Amino acid sequence: MSRKYQPAEITGEAMSEEQRAAWLEAGRLLFAREATFMLGVAGLAQLPDTDVPEVCFAGRSNVGKSSLINAVTGRNTLARTSVTPGRTQELNFFNLADRLILADLPGYGFAKAPKDKVEAWTRTTMSYLRGRAQLRRVLVLVDSRHGLKDVDREVMRMLDQAAVNYQIVLTKIDKLKKGEAEKRQQETTTELLRHVAAHPEVILTSSEKGDGIAELRATLAALGLPL
């Protein structure tokens, strides 16, 4: 059963059962629509020219970005997954019925690729994050088993400086005991108090077990175009 996640941005306090049900239903309806692969982008000149709101998935290599995109869209093979860190070598864009665009970014940190290529991915990714007008939120995925690392904090500081809104999503919580996952969530929430562009809510997810997926859908639905 999915752990409850109360979005302070919606009400400022815990929602009623009716409000929560409506919030979750909005997420279900949006992600019941068709999701399709748009294109892979190796350079900024190739970015899709749309006015559709975007949300991107960022994180260390092998943190589970592609798996989470597949889980949230309910399509097992929409985004390519791999056990090899650094497999995603482009910015991959997915269109959710022209209501919301999801971007899967190359993993930062360790990657099994030539150093110059990793540096090129990093430059393109950071330029995208700083300059994309329709980017509504960056989801910074963090492996719940390890918590925030220095490379995550470096990206968070860059997003703070660029005034780009971002939200931490803890992945792979099925690998932890319930008490451990909630402790990691609290540790992360406390650290976010020092970051001006960070959304205060930390979402717990498991792509394998489905924990937090309905809540993540509802969160993203609030950022997209009206149904």
UniProtKB/TrEMBL annotation:
Protein name per the record: Probable GTP-binding protein EngB
Names of required cofactors: Mg(2+)
BP GO terms, sorted: division septum assembly
A cellular component term, taken from the record's GO annotations: cytosol
Gene transcribed to yield this protein: engB
Keyword Ribonucleoprotein recorded: no
GO molecular function, one term: GTP binding
Family membership: Belongs to the TRAFAC class TrmE-Era-EngA-EngB-Septin-like GTPase superfamily. EngB GTPase family.
The keyword Signal is assigned to this record: no
Keyword terms, alphabetized: Cell cycle, Cell division, GTP-binding, Magnesium, Metal-binding, Nucleotide-binding, Septation
Superkingdom of origin: Bacteria
InterPro entries assigned: G_ENGB_dom (IPR030393), GTP-bd (IPR006073), GTP-bd_ribosome_bio_YsxC (IPR019987), P-loop_NTPase (IPR027417)
Function: Necessary for normal cell division and for the maintenance of normal septation.
Domain EngB-type G stretches: 51-226
Pfam families: MMR_HSR1
